[in-house]
Amino acid sequence: SRVLTFALGGTATLPPREVVTETIPPAPAQFADAATIKVGEQGYFRICVACHGFGAVSAGLLPDLRHSPVLADKDAWYEVVGNGARKDAGMVGFKDDFTPEEIEALRAYVISLARAEQKLP
Fold first, then answer.
1. Is residue 15 within 8 Å of residue 101, measured between CB atoms?
2. Neighbouring-strand partners of residue 52
3. Cα(31)–Cα(104) distance, integer angstroms
4. Which of 71, 74, 80, 86 is nearest to 117 (CA)?
5. CB-side exposure of 92: number of CA atoms within 13 Å?
6. Digits of tens for pLDDT over the chain (121 positions)?
7. DSSP string spanning the chain?
8. Distance of CA 107 to the CA centre of its chain
9. How far apart are CA 68 and CA 119, in angstroms?
10. How far is Cα 90 from Cα 2, in angstroms, rounded to an integer?
């Protein structure tokens, strides 16, 4: 995003906008059944959606969870979502709000979204 300031009679032009291209990692294999994914979806809509948006699709301010490098790693996901390994970046831990099984169900739900985006079964 940019902040623009205008002046009466101004003649300045905007510099070219920097284009950032994101490399989308391949979606991880799904490890969970439909019931577990549903539990993850319910948990996501209870807490995560407020910051990460519908369908885990980023609006640009927060990371797109479907493209998270920790999505494929159960332990890394728990460190971030459960223990708050990225609290300095604003991502607090939610181990008081979710059981370890529910945190894993959240991961299953986000994997299902990543796979759907990439049109994978």
1. no
2. none
3. 10
4. 71
5. 8
6. 567 888 899 898 888 877 767 788 999 999 999 999 999 999 999 999 999 999 998 777 788 999 999 999 999 999 999 999 999 999 999 999 999 999 999 999 999 999 999 999 9
7. -------TT----PPPPPP-PPPPPPPPPP-S-HHHHHHHHHHIIIIIHHHH-GGG---SSS--GGG-TTTT-HHHHHHHHTT-TBGGGTB---TTTS-HHHHHHHHHHHHHHHHHHTT--
8. 10
9. 17
10. 22
Handedness of CA 25, 91, 95, 39 (dihedral sign): negative
pTM listed for this prediction: 0.81
Cβ pair 60, 118 in contact under 8 A: no
User: Would you say the C-alpha torsion 41, 46, 47, 52 has a positive or negative sign?
Assistant: positive
Tokens 């159960």 sit at which residue? Answer: 74
| C-alpha span between 103 and 91 (Å, rounded) | 14
Tokens for 61, please give them: 């301010």
